[in-house]
């Protein structure tokens, strides 16, 4: 293999590494999106299960279910809701209204912490 061939080969490898690097970045973005979606869906699932349980105990009219849902979300800000948010934060998600539901990629978030300390 002469010197010129070596340089051609190195350039090819550089190009391949660039492609792999770009693909890695795309996969990382997709994984973050999937983790966030999974968390949103599991929270929604929990809330729906609660509604279903309430329905079984005491049937609610369809139009009031929307109100129950809104009340459940409003409850996030009190007692039980605070615990849920604290747990969500511990699991690595934002609970601040700036990035709510997004994965915390860089450790603690000052917005979230100030919210938790209220
Ligand atoms: Zn945050």
Q: What keyword list fits this structure?
A:
118 residues, mainly alpha, 2 domains, 4 helices, elongated, binds zinc ion
What does this structure look like?
The radius of gyration is 23 Å and the shape is elongated. The relative contact order is 0.07. It is built from four helices and no strands. The termini are far apart. By secondary structure, it is mainly alpha-helical. Bound molecules: zinc ion. It comes from Paenibacillus rigui. This is Replication initiation control protein YabA. Belongs to the YabA family. Zn(2+) binds at residues 94, 96, 109, 112.
Secondary structure layout plus pairing:
Blueprint: H1 3-57, H2 62-75, H3 79-90, H4 110-116
Bound molecules: zinc ion.
What would you say about this model in short?
The protein is an all-alpha fold and 118 residues long. The chain contains 4 helices and no strands.
Total strand count, please?
0
Number of helices: 4
Number of domains: 2
Largest sheet: none
Return residue spans where pLDDT drops below 50 for at least 5 consecutive residues.
none
Q: In terms of structural class, how would the helical and strand content be classed? A: mainly alpha
- End-to-end separation: 69 Å
Residue-averaged pLDDT: 85
Shape: elongated
Helix content estimate = over 70%
Rg calc = 23 Å
Q: What order do the SSEs take from the amino end to the carboxyl end, as H and E?
A: HHHH
Give the percentage of residues in beta strands.
under 5%
The set of bound ligands, ions and cofactors reads:
zinc ion
